[in-house]
Design a protein that fits this description.
eight-stranded antiparallel beta barrel, alpha+beta
Length: about 280
């Protein structure tokens, strides 16, 4: 996941998962790998993704283990933040184990094959394995993993268009200690109905409220994410939330503001918008 942001995948997004559309109680897990790629090495990194990890995740998606996976980059460059994120979504912890084991086996196999390559007929060394290549391509000292779970998850029933590379907005929140349940209740009362309407109207394709499943960061406790097909849709999301608040009395608006201010640390709030460069979703069953 991302200290930068987004979410959580979402993801997530994260993740636009038509296969889960009929499972409203589903709380998928998303594994995020944050990488800082050395300047000029971006295409080499994507080639490594396509030749090493993609075949594994694609096969596990065909087997029903992986729900969705992709690679995304931030719209805004921020010093110290990751340049690329690989993510995949699964239904449960056994899915995490299956993916991690398969990826480790793939990398070990390819490293071994590279080691046996020796010297070519022209005297050049054989191509290095994936471990050596990532050491050249990325600043591995800045690599960071996150594992998140969507507490609330919703997705459109309409399958994504072929070749869709969505944008995902992440709004990161730091909820005060012991206030998690109250925050979720407030979020579902005041934010979820707006997101549900945006989903029904086709303005967003999916959304979620997520937390770290394994807590590794103190920068945030919760994040809201949603997918849109283009940046213009973000204006419609903003307008929808403004309209929702504006139709309420001033007294109710003040109460909502005070409620969230009392549950969260406003100074810790951060946002991020990412663009997918690879985006794959399990087909509907």
């Amino acid at each position: 996941m991302k200290t930068r942001v987004l979410l959580c995948l979402a993801f997530l997004v994260l993740s636009c998962l038509p296969a889960a559309a009929q499972q409203p109680s589903m709380q998928p897990l998303t594994f995020w790998y944050d990488y800082t790629i050395n300047p000029g090495k971006e295409e080499q990194f994507l080639e490594l993704v396509k030749t090493v990890g993609a075949p594994v995740r694609d096969k596990l998606m065909a087997d029903g283990v992986v729900l969705a996976w992709g690679v995304q980059t931030p719209l805004l460059r921020v010093p110290g933040n990751a340049t690329h994120t690989i993510w995949y979504a699964v239904a449960d912890w056994s899915g995490i184990e299956n993916v991690q084991n398969a990826l480790q086996a793939q990398i070990a196999k390819m490293n071994e094959e590279a080691g046996k390559g020796g010297v070519t007929k022209k005297g050049a060394g054989a191509a290095p394995g994936p471990t050596a290549r990532i050491m050249e391509i990325a600043d591995v000292s800045k690599t960071r993993d996150f594992l998140t779970r969507d507490l609330v998850f919703a997705v459109t029933h309409v399958p994504p268009a072929p070749g869709l590379l969505p944008y995902t907005r992440y709004n990161f929140t730091k909820v005060k200690p012991g206030k998690g349940a109250e925050y979720r209740k407030a979020w579902e009362k005041y934010n979820k109905p707006v997101l549900d309407k945006l989903l029904a109207d086709g303005i967003i394709a999916a959304y979620g409220l997520a937390v770290e499943e394994v807590r590794t960061s103190g920068d945030f406790t919760h994040f809201t994410w949603y997918d849109v097909k283009d940046l213009g849709q973000l204006d419609k999301v903003r307008s929808a939330f403004l309209a929702d608040r504006d139709h309420r009395s001033q007294e109710e608006q003040n109460a909502i503001t005070e409620l969230f201010a009392g549950l969260t640390d406003p100074d810790a709030a951060r946002s991020e918008v990412d663009r997918a460069v690879i985006f794959k979703v399990s087909p509907p069953k």
